[in-house]
């Protein structure tokens, strides 16, 4: 059992380290894009399925409430939380439309659509990102090895792993890095060393 724990710990650290080192420039590009969007009065729309839906909610909460520093709330919405909207779209139209219809309803040019899919091929995530691009939103994708999400993402954060758990762990690390850096970019006057 202890060998298993050590194996998973080593694997998780290795995957995260490789992903962050290889994608640090993209992380900084995303931070810049989010900072510009928020400064211009835009918002961040986040979505995904299953664990990625939970990640979308987690990330939105870090922006709206706070991450590590006391600062004003930032505009982010997880499109995974309104069960009446999700089930009505899924029932009346199709599950593949549950995020795209919400993007059409509340997204506007200059906003950011942030889709999360560990496989990179979740049809409803791909359709929402496609819709967002057509509407003039900036698109961010977080995936495993890429998939169809890569084709419709202006900025992509992949994770080179075939293990869903390692991909999800790395997605949250990406998100925490981004949240911390956005805070530091938008609120440089706040003492972050004590946060």
Would you write up a description of this structure?
It is a single chain. This protein is an alpha/beta fold and 195 residues long. It has one domain: Glucose-6-phosphate isomerase like protein, domain 1 (Rossmann fold). It is 56% helix and 12% strand. The chain has seven helices and five strands, in the order H-E-H-E-H-H-E-H-E-H-E-H. The chain has helices at 2-39, 51-64, 83-92, 100-106, 123-135, 147-151, 164-186; strands spanning 44-48, 76-78, 112-117, 138-143, 155-157. The chain has a five-stranded parallel sheet, with helices on both faces. Helix 1 runs parallel beside helix 7, helix 2 (51-64) packs parallel to helix 7 (164-186) and helix 4 runs parallel beside helix 5 (123-135). The radius of gyration is 17 Å and the shape is globular. The termini are far apart.
Summary tags:
Rossmann fold, globular, 195 residues, alpha/beta, 5-stranded parallel β-sheet
Our measurement of the CA-to-CA distance between the termini, rounded to an integer number of angstroms, reads: 36 Å
CATH class categorisation? Alpha Beta
- Secondary-structure content class: alpha/beta
Strand content: 5-15%
CATH architecture: 3-Layer(aba) Sandwich
The general outline is globular
Largest sheet: 5 strands, parallel
- Kindly give the count of domains: 1
- List low-confidence stretches: none
Per the CATH scheme, the topology name is Rossmann fold
Give the SSE order as H and E letters.
HEHEHHEHEHEH
Mean pLDDT: 96
């Amino acid at each position: 059992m202890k060998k298993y724990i050590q194996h998973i710990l080593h694997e998780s650290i290795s995957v995260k380290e490789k992903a962050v080192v290889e994608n640090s420039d993209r992380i900084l590009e995303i931070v810049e894009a989010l900072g510009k969007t928020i400064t211009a009065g835009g918002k961040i729309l986040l979505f995904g399925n299953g664990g990625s839906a939970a990640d979308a909610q987690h990330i939105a909460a870090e922006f709206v409430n706070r991450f590590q520093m006391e600062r004003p709330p930032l505009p982010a919405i997880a499109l995974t939380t309104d069960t009446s909207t999700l089930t009505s779209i899924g029932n009346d139209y199709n599950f593949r439309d549950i995020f795209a219809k919400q993007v059409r309803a509340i997204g506007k040019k200059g906003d950011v659509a942030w889709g999360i899919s560990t496989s990179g091929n979740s049809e409803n995530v791909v359709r929402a990102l496609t819709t967002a691009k057509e509407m003039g939103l900036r698109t961010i994708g977080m995936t495993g090895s890429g998939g169809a999400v890569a084709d419709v993402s202006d900025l992509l954060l992949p994770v080179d792993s075939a293990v869903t758990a390692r991909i999800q762990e790395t997605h949250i690390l990406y998100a925490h890095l981004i949240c911390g850096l956005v805070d530091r970019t938008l609120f440089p006057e706040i003492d972050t060393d004590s946060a």
